Amino acid sequence: MSKAAVIDIASVSKIYGQTTAVNAISLKIPAGTYCCLLGPSGCGKTSTLRMIAGHEAISSGDIRLGNAVVTDLPPARRGTAMMFQSYALFPHLDLVDNVAFSLKMKGSPKDERRARALEMLKLMQMDAYATRRPAQLSGGQQQRVALARALITDPEALLLDEPLSALDPFLKVRMRAELKKLQKSLGITFVHVTHSQEEAMALADLIVVMNNGRIEQAAIPRTVFERPATAFVARFMGDHNVVSGRVTECRDGLVSVEVAQGGRFKGVGAGEETGALADLAIRIDHVRIGEPAEPGLGFTGTVQNIEYRGASVKLSVAGAGLDEFTAILSDKHFFAHPVSVGDAVPLCWEPADSILLGRLDS
Ligand SMILES: Nc1ncnc2c1ncn2[C@@H]1O[C@H](COP(=O)(O)OP(=O)(O)OP(=O)(O)O)[C@@H](O)[C@H]1O
To answer: What whole-number distance in Å separates Cα of residue 68 and Cα of residue 102?
Structure first.
């Protein structure tokens, strides 16, 4: 079981009545990739996944799997398998019959499909429970059975709709590692829908951030984290402060931006006209307590809230025309400069930690 397929989504839309759930998206997912579709509720992730699976008709555009255009094929003929959020196991069937179900639908002889189901249960280390029913299993075990059931058809791509959402936090992290291991060992393409940034960062080779039926950015996790393409991505990933204002100067690779209430900020960027609206993204974990090396690379604000997190401390500060600016300080740094709510505190950062964002969201 090692055939993997490229998934090529070309200008695909999904329209439900008056709602455009997916708006002409194009995306190429290389064969053998672990791809996470990430975004807030209602952004069109599930509709996209269901169109790849064939559970939802495509309003316009085309989807290819490997060399085949699958746009009009029924789910069972696409070479994909889907694992649902609720696992959708049959309560009255034992695990072998649950896993063998799709082979039964295809008319495979009983002995053959049962042997294959046992093989899949073994792959998921669930063969010892073969005669149990789903209700006699823990959440993590049910998930393994659901995976075995999806993989029995030998798919070229496995589609997973929020597969970890029903699990408690500890199990979530454990099953996350198992999913990643499984994908690497099978070598097939996984497309996994999630609204969790942490989950996508931990699992994906390719993160696709969606908003409002469109793709904001599709890139490796490190790029999405360090170089968000838009203000939406920077805000959604939560690792940057996003400062919006008008450009007052742009030269020598640095852009200066003035926010409405008079604060001035600088960041790495070029090609902006004076007076244009621009967004700067400032890494929350690179902000430090101290006077800035030059104006625009810091400000003095009032501490609004302090959250102790063990290895780090989250500081919320208001000032320079901003209601809320976040700094994540290492515990060592914070306790070397302890501050309290209501204190005035100078914050600073390096030029490279403040970057100009793309303009989709402004
Ligand atoms: N069957 C449907 N009929 C009408 N509108 C729908 C239908 N399914 C989804 N929508 C709408 O399409 C948009 C996208 O929905 P979708 O389920 O794809 O989003 P999502 O990103 O997966 O959200 P969630 O994380 O909440 O599952 C939403 O506005 C939703 O209300």
So the answer is: 22
pLDDT given at position 159: 96
Give CA torsion, residues 200, 181, 65, 195, to 10 deg.
Answer: -20
The one-character DSSP state at 297 is S
Pocket test for ligand 1, best of 22, 25, 46 (most atoms within 8 A of CB): 46
What's the complex ipTM? 0.95
Residue keyed to tokens 């999806």? 150
Q: What is the pLDDT of residues 169-225, one digit of tens each?
A: 888 888 899 899 989 998 999 999 999 999 999 999 999 999 999 999 999 999 999
Strands 277-283 and 288-289: unpaired
Given the CA of residue 43, which atom of ligand 1 is nearest to it?
21
83 lines ligand 1 (CB under 6 A): no
Give the pTM.
0.90
